[in-house]
Structures are given as C-alpha cells and as structure tokens.
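With this grant's support, we have settled on a layout for protein records. A representative record follows, to show the layout.
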Amino acid sequence: MSIEALIFDVDGTMADTEEAHRSAFNLAFERLGLAWNWSRPLYRELLKITGGKERLAHYIRSLDLPAAQQARALGRIAEIHAEKTRAYTAIADAGEIPLRSGV
C-alpha cells in the first residue's frame, strides 16, 4: 500500500474554526454568569495569544478589576475553558463548522 496523500492541519487550516471558538467562549461566559463578550475585532486581537487558557488569562489581566476579583477570575480559567470546550464540541458535533473553500 502506498500513500496517496498526506495532510498536515493546524486548527483553522481546513475548516473555519475561529468563529466557532469565539462563539464557544461567549457561550461559556454566558453559562458561567460572566458579563464578558468577545466581539470579532476583540477576538482577532486575542488570537495573538496562543492557547485558550493563556488567551483567557491575558484577557482577565487586561480587565480593570480589583486584585481580589482578578485573582478569583484567574482561578476559574480551568472551569471556563472546560465549559468552552463543551460548547465547541457541541458546535462541531452539530456540523456547524464550515470547511474552507476548496477542501
């Protein structure tokens, strides 16, 4: 058996995943009672930070919060990210992530 094709994929290469990730973050924020909403322009800036948990930490640190409130929010990163992952998985399972043109 010979290899006919070899595909290398990075998140977002073959499918337009970024909007699904943004939507999943916003769903997680809503479900967890956080008054945060990442707009498309904000998320575009946040994408400069690699990794979902790191992106959350960067965002929380950018908020004008009292130190204790910021510490509590930073302490919830694992919980927030887990909820985001559940939301993203549901979006993907529903077939709502479009393939890029030509795929």
Remarks:
- The mean pLDDT is 93.
- The CA atoms of residues 13 and 20 lie 14 Å apart.
